[in-house]
Amino acid sequence: MRRFSGLAMAGLAIAVAVLSAPPAAMAADTPNPPADLKAFQKFFKDKFPKVKFEDFVNGPYSMDEGLYKQWKEKEEFPPYEFALDLGKELMAKPFKNGKTLADCFPNKGIGIRQDYPHFDAKQGKVITLELAVNQCLEANGEQPYSYVKDEMAAVTAYMAYTSRGKVFDVKIPDDPRALAAYENGKRYFYTRRGQLNFSCATCHVQSPGERIRAEVLAPALGILNAMPIYRSEWSGMGTTSRRFTSCNSQVRGVPLKPQDEEYRDLEYYLSYVSNGLPISGPGARP
Amino acid sequence: MSRSISALAVALLLGGFVMPAHAASTEADYKAAYAAAESANAEAGKLRNQWTTAVSALKASKAAAEAGDFDKATAEAKKSEQLSKAAIFQTNEQKENWKLMEIR
Amino acid sequence: MASTIRVRATASGDSTEVQALIQHPMDSGFVKNAKGELIPPHYIQQVVIEHGGKPVFIADWGPAVSKDPYLKFAFKGGKKGDDLKVSWTDNKGASDTLTAKIQ
Predict the structure, then answer these.
(1) For residue C15, what are the domain limits?
(2) For the whole model, what pTM was predicted?
(3) A200 is catalytic
(4) Which of A202, A259, B6, B25 satisfies CB 3.0 to 4.6 Å to B74 for a cystine?
């Protein structure tokens, strides 16, 4: 028993010694989102010089020619068609009080998906599209949707579809809370977690175009532009919330609750650094 | 950055799951081990970084105890505690080291 | 209630290419739900596509086919404006059919 703990202590001591050397070239920690954006987009453009900028939103399809051909063919008759029909129906279906989901959004929810997420000064937090949908339902005395699939996926699919081609232009207003949310999201993205010790960056910054088991990894640039997605692995639709929570469990980290602060801030960061890229959702993925 | 991978891997491997041979565990041993594991898991939860394998080991521990197998129950509880302690280590280590991954 | 069948048929030269997307759970009977209970088998057993009253495509499906199946094939014949009839039947005795025009 004592030898066992001794080994453990030795292991931890080695780990601490190796890590106590400060990481090289730690730039000054004053937040600078525009500089982050520039560096982020340059990184991926340099890594994949043959990919057209707007094609980064196609994730693994822009990373692999064989996958691209199959995807193009599938897009003639995409699997998310059924979700689109349901989404359109739900947007117009009257609540008990006579109002509709469309009434909660500018322009009846048409062509506005790229305006989410944004920082809401009054609520003091990042509002994502999914959160806005459920806030609308609750404000009108209706049951909120589950965040991960079914109705939420259908509604956000329809809103994405009617916004295809419009580009992200996420703003970080001159508000310390907004900046803090952005920095929180950025930190979450790069932090290793779970027993597999992966951060989001491990797959989507270090290894896009490479495989994890049988899947080709997507680059982080533009990774949310195709959401929500019909994923063959899920045999169905899934939202941004579904992807974030399932990514956590895949690295053996217990997921947080959908739309918890970390996830909304993460979406804020990822959308901001993808500014200039068009909405391509809903998407189909392997 | 590859240094931080191997360091944690080393910590996990050495702090690992070699169960030393000793006398059979009693219910009291199990209860003490389970309480320690539960507390470590709760702390990892406060840090928003519980590991799924720590949670499942905790469940396995309880199930084994309910079946009367206190050896297994204690072993699983100890494994769970090690995993949660590694999770806590990881969170603290990553507080600064996340920047190693950052695109600049 | 919208049909479970979507069809797109395009005539080109002397052949017609047909794509169809069918909404169906295609439960194999081997998958458990969240409560641990087996979801009973519920899948399409046969798809028949007819042109001019004659079958041009017959598929015998089973539990190995995934949810919301998509199929694509081509047959000799068919011209723009012709009717194409797509039907399916499943193991619970349910069925659906849709007639679309070849484009």
Answers:
(1) 5-101
(2) 0.86
(3) no
(4) B25
